[in-house]
Structures are given as structure tokens and as C-alpha cells.
Amino acid sequence: MFPSILNSNQPRDQRQKGELLAGGFKPENFIPGVVIGFIFGLLLDLSKPSRNHLYKKIFSSTKLQQQLPVSSRGDQELKMVLVVRQDLKMKSGKIASQCAHAATGMYAELMQSDQYLLRQWEQCGQPKIVVTCRNQQEMNKLKETAESIGLPTFVVADAGRTQVLAGSKTVLAVGPGPKSAVDSVTGRLPLL
């Protein structure tokens, strides 16, 4: 099969080396090896946050950067606040469902836009606080204020299958973000 390897005129060490190389590489092991290597590399990449990533997308506003020194180690305490509209008179089960939509909606957006922030929030235990606002106008103002200082927001628009009209804005998620920044937007609102 490999005449140069099996040639008895070659020194014994060279023959053994050639036999090891010829027997070690098998085409049927190549593809699984590449796949395993790719998965291993991907896991290593996702498990270590970039040291130079400073919430560049979410907290890019200079006003927020002046208020809060953002550490590259990500050692700030983060939280999310869910703001529920009181004027819709939703029952407790509906509120719970809408808050879940808001939290998972924000999570899904951050999976696409800022996984580093998401990982930092997860390491803080994913704290969430639920508060109330009076109506749609107050919710809109809160959303604008949060976005003006660089905090991520997500608004739930109800499908209209049960208690509220289709398209009703039921819950606003603010954050995750540094506790003091989120509190500057939602800190005066009453707890649910």
C-alpha cells in the first residue's frame, strides 16, 4: 500500500515513524474531529467575555458614562424593571403572563444585540422588579427617558385574545442595566 514506508532498506526508526503517520490518519475520523474542534472552540469563545467590550451598544450615551463608570470586568450590579399599566385593569394571571413576555422579549433581543450584557445580568442572578404606571402616556415617557440614557427597552403589545384589546401596550421592560441608571428612570414608581 505504501511501498516507500514498507521498504526494508530504510532505517528502522524512519519505518516506525512512517507507519505511525500512515496508521494515525483515517479519513473517517477527519470530519468528526473538525466538528468537535469547532464546537469546542465555540464553547471557549462564548464562555469568556471580551475584556475590551464596555457595553458599547447599550450604554453608549455620554451622559450615562459620566454618571456611571462602566468596568471592563463587568462587576456592576444590573437589574431589569417591568412597568405594568394600571389603567388596563389586568388580572394577576394576565399581568404575570405579560411580564413574562416582556422579560423573554428583552432576553431574545439581547441574544442578538449584546450577549455580553446578557451574561453579566445572568451572573447577577437576573434580578427583576415589577412596578406600575398610570397609563400609556406615562409608559411612553418612561421608555423615552430610558432610551435617552442608553438603557435597552422592550414593550409588549398584547394579541387581544383575552382581557385587553389587540395592540394594547401592556408592559415595558427597562434594562437590564446598572441599578442606579434603571432606578433613575423607574425608582419613583410604586411596586406592584
Strand order of the largest sheet: 2-1-4-3
Distance between the termini: 78 Å
Radius of gyration: 27 Å
Measured by DSSP, the beta-strand proportion falls in 15-25%
Largest pleated sheet: 4 strands, mixed
CATH topology of the largest domain: Bit1
Class from helix and strand fractions: alpha+beta
Average of per-residue pLDDT values: 79
User: CATH superfamily of the largest domain, please?
Assistant: Bit1
Can you identify the CATH class of the largest domain? Alpha Beta
Low-confidence stretches: 1-6, 49-73
Molecular shape: elongated
* Number of discrete helical segments: 8
The number of domains is 2
Descriptive overview:
Keywords: Hydrolase. GO terms for molecular function: peptidyl-tRNA hydrolase activity. Its EC number is 3.1.1.29. InterPro entries: Pep_tRNA_hydro_II_dom_sf (IPR023476), PTH2 (IPR002833). Belongs to the PTH2 family. This protein is of the alpha+beta class. It has two domains: 3-47, no CATH class; 62-186, 3-Layer(aba) Sandwich (Bit1). The chain has eight helices and four strands. It has helices at 3-6, 12-24, 27-47, 62-67, 92-113, 115-123, 136-148, 179-186; strands at residues 78-85, 128-133, 153-157, 169-178. A four-stranded mixed β-sheet has the order 2-1-4-3. It is elongated and about 70 Å long. The relative contact order is 0.17. The model is unreliable at 1-6 and 49-73 (pLDDT under 50).
